[in-house]
Amino acid sequence: MSTPKVAKLRVVHNRTHVDQHAAGRAVTDLLRALGKDPDNPHLADTPRRVATAFTEMLTPREFDLTTFPNDERYDELVLARDIPLHSLCEHHLLPFHGVAHVAYLPAERILGLSKLARVVELFARDLQVQERLTQQVADWLQHHLEPKGVGVIIEAEHMCMSLRGVQANGARTLTSAVHGALREDPRSRQEFFSLARGR
Ligand SMILES: Nc1nc2c(ncn2[C@@H]2O[C@H](COP(=O)(O)OP(=O)(O)OP(=O)(O)O)[C@@H](O)[C@H]2O)c(=O)[nH]1
Ligand SMILES: [Zn+2]
Q1: pTM of this prediction?
Q2: Residues 47 and 133 in one domain
Q3: Ligand 1 contact, 129 CB (< 6 A)
């Protein structure tokens, strides 16, 4: 069977859509519960703005997953390092932000490079914990690209840990998920972790 030259798969998120009006009303209630006067003219547009901001942060953009045949039989790691990332912690609804390093070891097909960042966004724009986000990106790439291996590292600072509570300002959390050769083969695994950390 011949493999198509360029293949495109439309990727749409399967999140439920945000009810912006209901979210706005809830923000008005929250302001009141927090002892703030929602009728204060300075706060007049705040419920709408907050609803819009959360909608944006919870809605990944659609994209085409573009792949090309690996005609040159490229068989070394492809790594996109320092992909900017921001997401929302599901415990406090506060942001966590940092970078993702995403790599794969090609098999039959290679991927348009920008798509690595788009896959990160696909799962980051949700209520998350960092561990699940890391695994979802790795699992999705393994499933859709069927490479020889996948590796994902996320380094992030959680506002719920910096601004409140323990106030461990500047603490960064590292998580990783690896599949295939990057998990099984010690040399590939070592290479991935060294390159991803810039060493
Ligand atoms: N494993 C994991 N924990 C997270 C993540 N984001 C936030 N948390 C933690 O989730 C925990 C929630 O614990 P709770 O004790 O219920 O919440 P809390 O009373 O606000 O905790 P403190 O932050 O310690 O004040 C906290 O320890 C957070 O730091 C994440 O991405 N992964
Ligand atoms: Zn949190």
Answers
A1: 0.94
A2: no
A3: yes
